[in-house]
Amino acid sequence: MSSAAAGTGGVVAQVGGLSRSDLVAALREHGVQLNEHAETLLELPAFDEVVPATLRIVDRSVEDLGLSAGGSLEQVFSAARTQGLELCPVTAGPYLRLALTEQSNAPDSVLSAGRAPAGALHVAAEPLSENDEYPKGFYLRVVDGVVWLRGYRCDDTYVYPSDQRFAFVLPERS
To answer: Among 7, 166, 3, which residue's Cα sits nearest to residue 93?
Structure first.
């Protein structure tokens, strides 16, 4: 998702509607690479039956959320909520990867360095486990022209840099 495409209006994405096997097949068909953590998340019971939903997705940097010095996941999510944004369902990551085909190539080729990867778009979703060894969620990244859906791990003290981008749901206004 480029910043221009996901500005204030966001991007509309269809989430759900595929069986787990059809979803994995669609990712393969689109050349999406997965890391071990993404594969672990795709095994979650939540992917057994994902009810289709249409979501308006926006991306915001940690700084856009008012955290100029960066912030932990809890701080990032809290700041987003105060701006009227909602977290994505945990199942949104693979569907967003399929929908967001215009993501820019990452500025570096480092796939794992114990820090938030440059050029990544983290899908803001409630962590599924308090265990720091279990993946917290998905992020989208393009490295050397290869499209990735990756899972990530972090602890409660990890501070995301101010330029790190997260995808949120922009709720419908009634």
So the answer is: 166
Question: pTM (2 decimals)?
Answer: 0.89
Contact 127, 153 (CB under 8 A): no
The predicted-structure confidence for 93-124, as pLDDT tens digits, reads as follows 999 999 987 888 877 776 666 677 888 999 99
Q: Helix, strand, coil % (nearest 5) of the chain? A: 20, 25, 55
Residue 59 has which token pair?
């991306």
Contact in structure between 109 and 144 (CB atoms under 8 Å)? yes
Q: What is the pLDDT of residues 49-81, one digit of tens each?
A: 888 999 999 999 999 999 999 999 999 999 999
**Within the chain, how many helices (H) and strands (E) appear?**
4, 7
The average confidence (pLDDT) of the chain is 89
Which CA distances in Å does 117 have to 11, 75, 113, 143?
Answer: 23, 19, 8, 10
Tokens 């003290």 -> residue:
157
- The CA distances from residue 107 to 88, 99, 104, 126, 145, in Å, are 26, 22, 9, 28, 11
Q: Determine the length of the chain.
A: 174
Range 91-113 burial, b when 16+ CB lie within 10 A, else e: bbbbbbbbbbeebeebeeeeeee
Tell me, rounded to whole angstroms, the distance of Cα 5 from its chain centroid: 16
Provide the residue type at 35 as one letter.
N
